[in-house]
Design a protein that fits this description.
Blueprint lengths: L3 E3 L13 E3 L5 E8 L13 H18 L7 E8 L2 H6 L1 H12 L5 E6 L10 E9 L6
Parallel strand pairs: 4-5
Antiparallel strand pairs: 1-2, 3-6, 4-6
Helix pairs in contact: 1-3
Length: 138
């Protein structure tokens, strides 16, 4: 799917996201539930923020790929963190992990600090919305 990036001049240039992503007509919408840094057994083993972020984003991409899409089909990410300061302090290595998985595709992104997540050891959770072509995928 090829999104049209919507970035009104009045909002200034976005850094690491787009303000809006307009999907083409005829796409199928995939809603990806919040994914934490869990392994195949459903356990959150990684204790570090960066490791959990990496695994959570990998889990989101696993769902998208299973539906026939790829990173470029994601139009929105919502990232929930339990420690905003840790997120801010980790931006550079976080960006490297992000680009390793997503390339230079930057959907509309929101970051929300929460007091806790359902999984006991989780410090980050990521949910997504993707738009896939009628045949599934880009």
């Amino acid at each position: 799917m090829s999104f049209e990036m919507i970035n009104p001049d009045e909002l200034g240039p976005p850094k690491g996201w787009n303000n809006g992503m307009l999907a083409p007509t005829g796409g199928r919408i995939l809603f990806v539930a919040g994914q934490v840094g869990s392994d195949q057994t459903g356990q959150v083993e990684a204790v570090g923020f960066l490791e959990q972020f990496d695994r959570a984003l990998e889990n989101v991409l696993t769902v998208v790929r299973d539906a026939g899409g790829g990173p470029e089909d994601i139009g929105r990410l919502t990232i929930y963190v339990t420690d905003r300061e840790e997120y801010l302090a980790s931006r550079k290595p976080l960006g490297e992990k992000y680009r390793a998985l997503m390339g230079s595709h930057y959907p509309a992104i929101a970051l929300v600090e929460v007091t806790g997540l359902v999984e006991d050891n989780a410090v980050v959770e990521i949910e997504a919305t993707a738009v896939l072509s009628e045949k599934g995928g880009s």
